Amino acid sequence: MRLECPGCQGIKEIPDNTKIGNIIECELCAGMKFKLNSDSKGFKLIPIHYASCPDCGKMLEVPTNSTAGDKLFCCGKQHKLTFEYGAWALTESKK
Ligand SMILES: [Zn+2]
Ligand SMILES: [Zn+2]
User: Fold this and answer.
1) What is the mean pLDDT of residues 48-71?
2) What's residue 64's pLDDT?
C-alpha cells in the first residue's frame, strides 16, 4: 500500500504485511519514525516523538496522547515530560 508521509508529504511504499503499530522509518525525514495506524478514512502514519532520558541519554518513546507534566520511567526514576520549542524533553523530577 502507499501512504503519505506526514513529515515530508512524500509517498511511501509500505509493505503489505505491515501491521497496525509497526514502525516505519522515513529516510527523507532524517530518520524520523512513524507508526502505522488506522482511522475511519483508512491507514495513516503517525509521527513518533522521542525524548531523551536526562540520566542515560536513551531515547524514550513519548506516547501520542501525552501532555506536558506526564512522567516517563527510565533508570529506575520517573522523569517529567516538558514540551518546549516544538520538541519533547525530559527533566529530572525533584528528589
Ligand atoms: Zn518523510
Ligand atoms: Zn535512563
Assistant:
1) 93
2) 84
